Amino acid sequence: MAFKEEPSVRYEVINGKKVPVVECETEVVLRNKKTNYEYNSDKEAQDDIANPNTATVEEDVVRSVKIKVAAMPPIGAASDSK
């Protein structure tokens, strides 16, 4: 089961200009490559690694990330040069 990290927008001042910094929506899949079990969170995977009753080690957990990116303007599009 994948879990999502929601997008957000914050603003930073770069070279004297206020610009948006976009953090895109991501879909994360954490899976134990030996058992093929899919974790529901980073915490669940870490708890499995820390559990002395399981053989899971950090190297058993793999992460796949899908990033949903907002549309980019066409190359050569006008930009604010101030």
Q: Main traits of this protein?
A:
82 residues, mainly beta, four-stranded antiparallel sheet, 1 helix, 6 strands
Q: How is this structure best described in words?
A:
By secondary structure, the protein is mostly beta strands. Helices cover 11% and strands 43% of the residues. The chain has one helix at 42-50; strands at 3-5, 8-14, 17-23, 25-32, 38-39, 61-68. The strands form two sheets. Strands 1, 4, 5 and 6 form a four-stranded antiparallel sheet that branches. Strand 2 (8-14) and strand 3 (17-23) form a beta hairpin. It is elongated.
Q: How would you summarize what this structure contains?
A:
The protein has 82 residues and is mainly beta. It has 1 helix and 6 strands, in the order βββββαβ. It is elongated and about 55 Å long.
